[in-house]
């Protein structure tokens, strides 16, 4: 843990006291989003201290020209970056001729609250300006879930010790840059600026990708709750910015306020020539409803999300706050409404990493969305990859693969690979496995087989072809080996026979062959269509099978474990516990070669395989591998502790499971990795959900049946969660000695609890 | 081979006919240098076609800010680049109001000649301008060996079909950029511009490194050989450029000429405030001598170099031309006069790679300079590393090494590492071995032990400490392993137990321990001084010894060979001969992952070890290893064919040795690697020298005695070379059936020819 300033609370994230050192961290933690856009918790007013400004629009990206020291054949020319979008939140505040700037005045009673239950962010403080004026400020901001192009700000200023002339200067500004731009270029080209009355519209276009976005605002000025219905005294417009000015006089304890409606209309959703019109519609709708009604809608919309997605934890506020923060951020990032979107690793909270889609989506996020939303959402996420199959084939072709072999990108926006480190881009190929596994997992959980004949089979075939071609026949071993890969543990590069990669490669081929057969039997028309399209014949399938049947897995007889890679045992096997703590995190302390030759594991690797394929191994096997690898794991990836938490729980090691749970659920709140100011770790938050449902709850689907092995950490009195299983919602509530089930649905459901089958009738409490 | 337009000639490089496609290639091939500065064969006059302009000053560099995609701890912030220096050669030529530009007129009888015997470059052609004027042009250029700040151009224009007004517009221009600048920044800051009469001086300073350079010119105008003693009609000066204008009228077949003296005076050699004065001295001296005398001096100076360095080959013009081209370029690049300088991989012929010093210097260049110059030259090259020992210790410390462990940089100008690819910078650590080996080699060849107690021992200790710390104890093997390295074969990265690296690591420790003992015995005062300085005790030395004595070497019983690295046999061992030729060179056709998992070897790796340590292995061992590795070697490094040529010769495979010899000696002339336009491969040229002297000549030093095993490729009638062995020059001349020795010296010399000892008396022909 690296910080602990966030106050424990069941439903809110709360910070008290102003500390300039924490501003960037809180900007990440108090971020808001509504699936269509997002906003870091930047101040509306000017701030001359350190800040990381970030506004984001889902799906709008820019392919920045690649920057590398030494070019390698096959590198992509562009890196699709999450774009810092135009600013719609800005409101300069001038009080008695002095600009309000928290780094230049005395700040008291500073407080932030992100109310996750209701979906709003509030900031309040008192400031003593250099001119002696004391004011109290209270700002509420939210991004509407109902009208997802709309953001709302209610900015209240109350003079405390003297009358004050208060000028609100709201603006919209497309003159923004990405902090991580490779060449310090601007990504937005201003196109048009309009304003009239209280409304302004700045239209800009991304270079290259030509996304048009109209950034808009509408402002109303209030005194003591009464709309003054005034127009701006002044409007300044440049090619990419419009700023209004409203001045009012307030007596002590008067509340002067500006309510700003703002946001974006973008050409992904509207005719690009009618963006300002669309924005006017958004504004008109918001004006018609008014602030309170909009806030009411917001609360209702979040209540409806929580109704399904909430997990309760009794007796442990920090644990409760952690899981809700994770669920809240996942829903802020991606709601599953738009099949063109995906779940970026930082969501709408930072620029780092770029791209919107990593293997995180399939390996970590799909289970969460599958269980807490309509199954169409998970299907959309699968379809996203199906739609990008051609690009995956192109991507593989760049690396010399042929015949429709597909390699899905490590990082992407539109299916094209963006990343450019050879050891990742070209070698971290296990990502392909997770994409196939998600198809299997979707069918296992939803029972909806139709996706496979319709779309999934082609993806499975492209992936199987890749593995077949990527494996190398070793005459020495008379087996197939997979050389030169990076496994999930990115602290080893260019290794041979990474167990996880070899295992999932074999599985992908076996699974593809099974599905081809099954589709042939049950969906002959789809089978014929797909086989004709991909030109696959029996001879090729035999070749695949030969590779799968003769895949080599490195194994140590001495330790009784599969080896992470051929040479793992050559390392100096000093456990993490015996490592000087001053050397950690090693990725900040050590040079790369030292990390690579160390035994330290960034994130679950062999154990990731045991997570996916738990049912292929005995609990004794799991225990042996967990005991072997856990002591070398440094968990410097956000994706690591959740898997270890689940496995520790399975092994009945509840203290350890709980520690990992806290680490995954409060990774950002407590800033374990010392980097939260760069943004949140969104995708790993789905891992936190898994660590409760699959770890403590022991939820599994086996043979179309839900199984549970509920366990409780001793710190908790109980916990509950819901899952949408085959279009019925099952609520599971676990307390010491008993597990309660309630089913919202119409059909009875058989569940297996600790090996014993139980029938749950709809709307009837069943206690086991 | 990729091109064959260079005409065969024993002493000259000749091109006939103008082909715009060849301009950049010829700019490299016809480069001139004098050890202190260098110049690509750019045209003096304007040229609007594709050209790569390059002027270089030895030792003047710029630390360009590192550009990488993904930063790793330990990367250097800067990359010291070879700087494109101000232009002193430029002369715009205007003929009857039209600028002469070979890409805009008809060109006939174009011819270039680089006369290596005499050290000058000539270009001649006839041009029909768009205005119909036909002219014949003849330009001679050289960089004086005698006055190494001086370059000389004699530019003659003869109208052929009509009278012509000819304007010569010579200039000096500091407004130059590096093509490879990471951020498109300028590296030169203009400081001062002066001109008077026929002279001009532009002084500029490199940013950051603050090298000051005065670029100067003096011009004289001639008509039919007579100096017109005119002043420029016009002078244009800007902040970084001065251009004069001289106009004369010439009748058909009159020869109008400009003789331009130019060059640089730099703050490495002069008070920075007196650079223009120093330049005036250079000009005055040149004016006093005049063009013909300067050219005469040049011829004499090159004759003196050739007297010692020449290798003759009878009966094979292309082979003769190749070796002389190599010897010529080595001498153009580095003459051993200035101990601050070193031998950059592209010399003065291009920007690529940056830095001036690689392990190439120790592994390839020192033997050449040691045998063809005074032994002080080789000692200077060793001292260069001694002087940078502190930086090597800092470099190792950045990677976590302690206690004075030294890691010499992969690429450097001043001792600081410049390179920034983790797999090279952090892992291609075998470079340390070559630096220690060169100390051993120097002593073996020169018999001068004094370098070791004075300087070498500290270097050997720093290097031994590095290897001791870098090795990892493997409990699994109960031996020391070296994990995560890149060997000389850069087509494998991050491998374990690269045989070459492990072998030289062990050797470095053993050799350091031996020398410590020897110095203790014979130079007790030096021993005491060094031990006190480095704080080395017996306990530490025992630890070193333990690592050396228990070093692991991967070995295949089945094949009877040491393995290039632990996992070499897992590769798909398809020989180069069986590879589709359309796939080569693989570094231009394949993505990096494919190269890495292939068995293809970029340059001698295990065989490099057999080259250095030939006497540790039997000829049968060599044969076995050569037969195993040669078939997988693609020789895509310039440093590869020479080693294979030597070993093929040792094994009596003369056809193969000859093929490799041609490839190494004509690598650039015939552009085997399709990249000659980027510059020449200077350091590998010393390998060409070795392939004759050590390969065909079989020259070795064993127990203070020169041994020879002379062999002749069947294409040759004979060959001869000279070596300076322990301050006496031995000429060796080999013809079928006999080897002749002549000794220039005062002491008789015992040599061993094919195992039989022979005594050579001074100045007496000995035939064996």
Write the layout of secondary structure elements.
Two copies of one chain form a homodimer.
Chain A: E1 12-16, H1 23-29, E2 32-33, E3 37-39, E4 55-57, E5 61-65, E6 78-82, E7 91-95, E8 98-99, E9 106-115, E10 120-128, E11 134-143, E12 150-159, E13 164-173, E14 188-196, E15 199-206, E16 212-223, E17 226-227, E18 234-237, E19 241-250, E20 256-266, H2 275-289, H3 291-309, E21 312-314, H4 317-333, H5 359-372, H6 375-387, H7 389-398, H8 422-425, H9 431-446, H10 451-470, E22 472-474, E23 479-481, H11 499-522, H12 524-534, H13 538-549, E24 555-556, E25 561-562, H14 586-589, H15 592-597, H16 606-612, H17 619-629, H18 641-650, H19 654-665, H20 682-696, E26 700-702, E27 705-708, E28 718-725, E29 728-735, E30 738-744, E31 749-753, E32 756-760, E33 766-767
Helix pairs in contact in A: 4-20, 5-6, 5-9, 5-20, 6-9, 6-10, 9-10, 9-11, 10-11, 10-12, 10-13, 11-12, 11-13, 11-16, 18-19, 18-20, 19-20
Domain Glycoside hydrolase family 65 N-terminal (chains A, B): 14-267
Pfam families (chains A, B): Glyco_hydro_65C, Glyco_hydro_65m, Glyco_hydro_65N
Organism (chains A, B): Flavobacterium album
